Every structure is written in C-alpha cells, then in structure tokens.
Amino acid sequence: MTGPGRRSSTFTRLLRHGFTDPSAAGRLLDLPEMSSVRSDPVLLDSLGASADPDLALRSLVRMVEAQEPGERQRLLDTVVTAKPLRDRLLGVLGASEALGDHLARHPRDWQALVTYEASDLHPGVAEFERCLADATDTVSLRVAYRRCLLSIAARDVCGTTDVAQTAAELADLATATLRAALAIARAAAPQDAAACRLAVIAMGKCGGHELNYVSDVDVIFVGEPADGDAEEAKALQAATRLASHLMRICSETTVEGTIWPVDANLRPEGRNGPLVRTLSSHLAYYQRWAKTWEFQALLKARPVAGDPALGEEYIEALAPLVWQAAERENFVPDVQKMRRRVVDNIPVAEIERELKLGPGGLRDVEFAVQLLQLVHGRSDATLHSGTTLDALGALASGGYVGRADAAQLDDAYRFLRAMEHRIQLYRLRRTHLVPEGEADLRRLGRSLGMRTDPVATLNKEWKRHASVVRRLHEKLFYRPLLDAVAQLTPGETRLSPKAAGQRLEALGYADPAAALRHLEALSSGVSRKAAIQRTLLPVLLGWFADSADPDAGLLGFRKVSDALGKTPWYLRLLRDEGAAAENLARVLSAGRLAPDLLLRAPEAVAILGDPEGLAPRDRGHLEQEVLAAVGRADSAEGAVAAARGVRRRELFRTAAADLIGSYGTEESPAEVDTGALVDRVGKAITDLTAATIAGALRAAVREQWGDTLPTRFAVIGMGRFGGHELGYGSDADVLFVHEPRDGVDEQEAAKAANTVVTEMRRLLQLPTADPPLLIDADLRPEGKSGPMVRTLASYEAYYRRWSLVWESQALLRARPMAGDLELAGRFIELIGPLRYPAEGLGEDAVREIRRLKARMESERLPRGADPTLHTKLGRGGLSDVEWTVQLFQMNHGWAEPGLRTTRTREALAAAHAAGLMDTEHAQILDEAWVLATRVRNAVMLVRGRAGDTFPSDGRELGAVGRYLGYGPGHVGDMLDDYRRITRRARAVMEELFYGA
C-alpha cells in the first residue's frame, strides 16, 4: 500500500516532468504491469520529454497490456535500456493518439522501431515497397502502411529528419502504396491488366514530393491499349476499372480504417470528364481547353505507378505546354483570382485558424513560387521542380527573388508545414485548422520544441511566420524588378533585363521597357525619397497589375511622384495611411479621366488618405466655397477659374470614390448596391455643376453690374441636370428665366439677362487646364430658333398658346438650380399643369409621344451603331426606360404625388408603390437603367471622353468590364449580360409604353 508521503512525492515528481494530470499518471504507474519501471527515472525523463507526457504514458500502458504476457517485460526492458527505441517510441506516443491506437491493436509493430541502421534513417520508395510487399488485400495494406508511417513519424518527432525530408518520405510511401494498390487491383482482374497500359501520375503535394501525414493524394490516369492494334475503347474501359479499383483500395474504410482518399478531380474536365484518357486525348484537351490553373497544377505532375514509359511520355508531351502558360492572356490575374477565390471560400469563423489556405498561410507561399516558376521557367530549366522549397531555392539562386526574402520565406514555410504535420499526426485526420483548446495547443507547442510556456510561444511564432508570409509573398514577385534597376545590393544576383521584361509582360504590361524606365526613375539612388519608393512600389505594382491598364497606372504614378516628390507629406501619406496607396493605385490604373484630373492639381491626392475624403460634399458647402472663391478674385476670368478649380477637385473626388467603390479594396469589398453608387455620382456631379453655375453667374453679374443685376434671373436645370442624374461627360441642360426689377425697362432687362448668359457660357468654356462646363439651352421654347432668355410672362404666354407635348415632357425634369430662387419657384409653379395635366394625357397626346419615340429610334441612332449596345438610344437603354417612366408621370402625376419628381428611379419606385407597375417590371427597368448609366460613366472614366456605346479597343473594353465587376477575360460575359438585361427591359417597355 502506498503511503501519503510517497503519493505526495510521486505527484510532485510527475508534475515536474510535465504531466498535467499527475494523479491519473500515478495510478497508471501503480498498475501491476508497470511495477518494474514505475520509479525508473530514465522512463520518467523520457516521458517528460515527449509532446504530451500524459498521452504517452496512457498509450504505453495500453501497449503493455496488449502484449502477450511473456512479451510485456521484454518491451519494458527494451524501452528502459535502449535509448534510440525509447526516444522514438515515446516521442510517437506523446505526439500521436492515432499511432498509439495502432500499436495497441498491433502489439508487435513496436519492433519496427528497434532497428536503427543507416538504411532506416532515410528510406526511399524501394524500402517502402519492400515493407508493403506482403500486403495482398485492403486490410493488410493498411496495417503495413501504418507500420511504415510509424517509422516516418518516429524519425520526424525525434528530429532525425527535417520537415522537408519527412514530407518527401510521406510522398515516397504514397508512391509505394499506389503501386501496391495497383498490384492488388491487377491481381483481382488479370484480363483487364493484360488489356491495357495504365500510368498513374501524381499531382499536388504527392507529385511535388511534399506530402502531409493525412492528405488527399491527387492523381491523373493515362491509359493506352497494351497492344497497339487493340481496340482503344475496350482498353480504356479496362484501365478505368483498374483505376477505380485502385482508388477504392486506398480510400475505402475497413476494420483498419482508411489510408487516404485518392482524388482524380484534377483531370481534364474534372469530375465530369472520363477517369482515364489516352495520351493524345490529354494533349488535345490541354492544347485547346485547359485553363491557367490546370497548367499551374501540372507543375507538380510526376509518374509514380503503373507503366513507367507511358508516364514519362505524358510528362514529356505536356511539359512544353506548362512552360508556355505564362504567355496566355490574363495569366497573372487568373492565378491571383484563383488564390482570392480560395480565401473567399474559407468560413469566416475559421479564417484566423486556417494554416494552409488563410492569408499568410502555406498556399500563399506555394502560389507565389509557382507563379514565378511559370513566368521564368520558360527560359530557365533549373526552375522545373515540383517541390516548393527546391523551387524557392532555385529562384533565389537565379536572382529571380532576393536571397534574404527567399531565406525568410523558406523558414516560415518550414515552420508552418511542421505545425501542419504535428496537427495532423495527433489523430491522423485531414485538417489545416490550428486547434483552439489549451491542451491541444500545449501538445502542439511542445512537439515543436517549445517547453517554456508552449502555448504563448507557439502563438507568437505562428503569428510571426504568418506575418512574414503575408508581407513577402507579394513582394517576392515585384521586389526583384526594383533590384534589377536600382542596383543597390552588391554581390546580389539580379534579374536580367530579359527576365524583368518577362515578368512585367506576365503582369500585363504592354511596354515592359518603359515600365522598367519608370521603376528606375522612381527607385534609384540612396535618397530617403527613393528608399520609401522601394518600399511602396512592390505593393503598388501588384495593384497596378490587378487592373486593365498597368502601364497607365505606373506612368501616372511616376507623373504624380515627379510633381509631388519634394513635398514632405506625399510619400509619408502613401507609406503611413494604409488606404491611400491602394486608392491611388486603383484611381491611376482604371482609366484616363481621374488621372487627368489629378495631374492638373496633384495635391488632391491627399483626398485619398482621408477616411472622409471620398465622401461627396453637399451642395450648400460647395456653393459657399465657390462663391467665396469668386468673391476673392480680381476679375470674372479669375473668379470662374477658381470655381472651375473647385469643380475639377470635386470631380476627382467623385470619380475616385466611384472607382474605389466599384473595384473594392483589400479592406472593403466592391459596393454591392450599384444603384446607390449611380445615385451618389449623379447627385454629386449635379450639386457640383449647380455650384459652379452659381459661381459663374455671380462673377458675370459682378463684373458689369456689381452686386445687383437690373433683372431678377434664375437658372432652371433640365434633362439629367434637373434629374440629379448627370454623368462625368454630361452637358448641363438649362432654361434661363428673368423678370425686370421694379422701374427697369424691359429691353434693358432683356439685354442684361442675355449679356449674363453669354458671359457665363464664355467663362465656363474658356480654354484652361480645367475641364470646360458646357451649357445647353436647346430645350427652351422654339429651340435654337427662340430667344436664349425669356421673362416669366413670356414663358407663360408661350406655354399657354404654343406648347407641344414634347415640351411638356421635357419640363418633367425642370428644377431650380441657381439664381433667384423665388422667381425659379414661380416658374416651377407655372409649369405644373403642363407636366402633370389634370386627368392625365388625352389619347392624341399619348399617340404623339409614342410617334416621337418611334421616330427617334429610327432616325437618331448613329449610323453603324449596334442597337443592342447603345446605352442611350439602343434597345432597352436609357431612352426606353425614361420615356416609359415619363409617360406614367404625365398620365398619373396629377393624382400620385410620388410621381412628381425629376428623378427617374424615384418616379419608377413611385409608380410601383402606387400599383401602376408590378414588381418584376419595375425591377427589370431599374436594373437596365442603372446598368446603362454605369456603362456611360465607365466609358467616360476609361476613355476620358463621353460615349454612349462600349469601346472597341480591347484594353478599354476590359477596363469598362473591371469597373462593372467583371474579371479579366470576361468581356464577353459583360456584353452578353448587357444584352440580356436590356432585352428584358425592352420587352417591358413595349408592353407598358406602346401597349404591345
């Protein structure tokens, strides 16, 4: 019987040796089976050195209990006296509950760890094949596989092999297992085996010689007739049966569990394609149909089982295609999009614990390395390795990545893979999630050699290495481009000009030589400015590459940097304000308009670093600023120049916010509600135009009359201006109305009003660095033939006697914008009955509106324009939606207050709310109107000039697509979607407008 003193002493000793439950450990050591070693200090020291002493002791006791009575003491004696066995066995038992279970089920397998000869230290495929040679069925294969796995794990946990060697051994064991499984399948179907040649090509981590403990084994099967004259179809059927049986042998769950799933989904056409193809069929698919990611996957292809000659033929046939993949259009964006898609599919609750797929995880390293291999492997065969760390080393040796960066990434990758190995080893389950439990984290940390505060140390090291990967995996691609031109590090192997050009071409640069000159100008030298640029440019180059025009982005950045390089705040803003640099990159590479606006006054870049800087300013603030600037000026020209300067800055703010909202950033995704984006742009530009016109009016009046014009004067917004729907390239449609002041002669008043209008238009169109503002008054009574300005009384007389139905329709958009608001209000009151006639329109008026619309469709569409793609006059475009909505307004506005609005979307929503239009029709029309408006805005942003149809230039068309949310290579989808959406809108319009 054990006394209290001894129990206390044992408890303390076990606690000191790292046991977390000393009481339970003490009870296990007190079992009769353990009596001979219960106080052995060597055993306790070794148990304490394991990752989980409690687990190691529990598993050891189960092993001892499972032995034949005569074998128990032999096992314990060997454990105590043979240090190599003790370290290996207890190391495995403390790290892997699953292998402890295996040793309890197969009591003799511990003897596989006894021998410790040179051939055991680094076995290859041949040694593993010998170990599996006696397996004749699925159960015996699993038992032999686990026995081999036991020896790999023992070398791993004892540090005999490093993480790369362990991964290579696991891949070699998988190779031997696939060969054994194929042998079993062939033995079960000798006729099938005789009818075909079958090669098994390993892909993924198995192909790359870097397998995990528990992972799907990715394969591709290639089959041919055994006899060249045999029927191909029958040979493929036989090969398919063999391949399917091989997969079941490895994947099925038996009394001994499973080995691993064999996954053939990387084959051509994935799970929809045939399991086995001939070599010529594989070749035809990759030559014609394969996507970029499929060539990336082939980097790791390696024949491992079956017919070796056929396997080698497969590799030789496909290798040239792999190394041409980087020449494909949109190569880099395709690869980066695939990476982003992987991250996007991780559940939010798991992303912080995801070791493989999360940001800063293993996949970031692998994608970056593979990308560089595909770009430079075309001309450098030393990069043709399927193993990530070998390829990374070759990239560093060739100067394709910096040696210091490669060393840091190598270190981080090894640490993360070691974590992954130990997490999977515990229960031999396929997982890449870092555990959350304290006990699991403690075991994991101790298994990696962290004995003092293992949980805190593990978390710290993991975060540090993940941070290194996050920082370097993008830099890895772009930094050597700077080193190639800056030439600052003596002795460092650098990219050759040819290799730098290849990399820039892969990134989508049309003129690599010019891009290298820009990089050299920005980053060369030892100044603080050049040092900051070398920090910024690797990231900026990535953002430029993620656009339709990287060349324009880099050129624009050089111009802005040249203009602002000597200002102390510019580079500091980009370096320290996380969003500023990305926002600038998006704006500079998305088209011509925003960079043109910025380069006229580069200091506006400060807007991009202010969290509130992209928010549109309201009309009151804008008008106040414009009028203050006008008041400070010495002349009308100077006053309007100041007002146009404000307009240019605010146009840039609006365009930048629109682009960033449409593209999204790393911190915030693209805006989902595109209607809200369109409304925000329309309102911002309308408010800005109104403020600018108010400033021009003040300047024109002050120049000749001082503070008071002889006549009261108002500007009425019409068209898109009145509807708060202006785009970047819109003119301002207006009407001018005046009323002589008391005691002022009507002719004098009219002359003053006309002089003001003429001066305003002149001032707003003066040639300057700022974009002109065109004022269009063609919607006035009598059009171009009528007087530019009328009195309120003249308008009243005209509308009472001569007004046509189209003029009433145009007045639906009329809204006061500048000048005398009381006079403008009376004008709006005057036209109310015209635009919202009591009891609605008569039949003749409706017929006339329909006739005008039909005539416009047949006569005004530009010659040669595609009617399915013209945003204004084309099928289902802006005109179709607006005329439909306006017909509802004129018919029902008298009875429905919600319809009395100048805004198309508001009126559409009001018609739906009033029950005049069903939900589906309203949604179809709204979607088409928003899309057509966005296309017009996109064309102006991309080309720098207005247009009503999609650009014909491929790069410009791609930029429009990016603005609309379509990735590289999806221009066709964009045009198809536009035609589909507008076709549906046209059908609704014909029903509601024409009554079809």
Summarize the structure.
By secondary structure, the protein is mainly alpha-helical.
Describe this structure in words.
It is a single chain. With 996 residues, the protein is mostly helical. Helices cover 62% and strands 5% of the residues. It contains 44 helices and ten strands. The strands form two sheets. Strands 1, 2, 3, 4 and 5 form a five-stranded mixed sheet that branches. It is elongated and about 130 Å long. It starts with a helix and ends with a helix.
- Helix content estimate: 55-70%
Number of strands: 10
| Overall average pLDDT | 91
Strand content: 5-15%
Q: Structural class given helices, strands, pairing?
A: mainly alpha
Keywords, please?
single chain, about 1000 residues, mainly alpha, five-stranded mixed sheet, 44 helices, elongated, disordered N terminus
Task: Note the topology.
Layout: H1 4-16, H2 22-29, H3 41-48, H4 53-66, H5 69-81, H6 83-95, H7 97-105, H8 118-121, H9 125-132, H10 138-157, H11 163-188, H12 190-195, E1 196-202, H13 204-207, E2 217-225, H14 232-251, E3 262-263, E4 276-277, H15 279-288, H16 292-298, E5 302-306, H17 308-322, H18 331-344, H19 362-376, H20 388-397, H21 403-427, H22 438-447, H23 454-486, H24 497-506, H25 512-523, H26 528-545, H27 550-564, H28 568-576, H29 578-589, H30 593-600, H31 619-632, H32 636-663, H33 674-705, E6 711-717, H34 719-722, E7 732-740, H35 746-765, E8 775-776, E9 789-791, H36 792-801, H37 805-810, E10 815-819, H38 821-835, H39 843-859, H40 878-892, H41 904-913, H42 919-943, H43 954-963, H44 971-992
Parallel strand pairs: 2-3, 2-4, 7-8, 7-9
Antiparallel strand pairs: 1-2, 1-5, 6-7, 6-10
Helix pairs in contact: 1-2, 2-4, 4-6, 4-7, 5-6, 6-10, 9-11, 10-11, 11-14, 15-17, 18-19, 19-20, 19-23, 20-21, 21-23, 22-23, 23-24, 23-25, 23-26, 24-25, 25-27, 26-27, 26-28, 26-29, 27-29, 28-29, 29-32, 30-32, 31-32, 31-33, 32-33, 33-35, 36-38, 40-41, 41-42, 42-43, 42-44
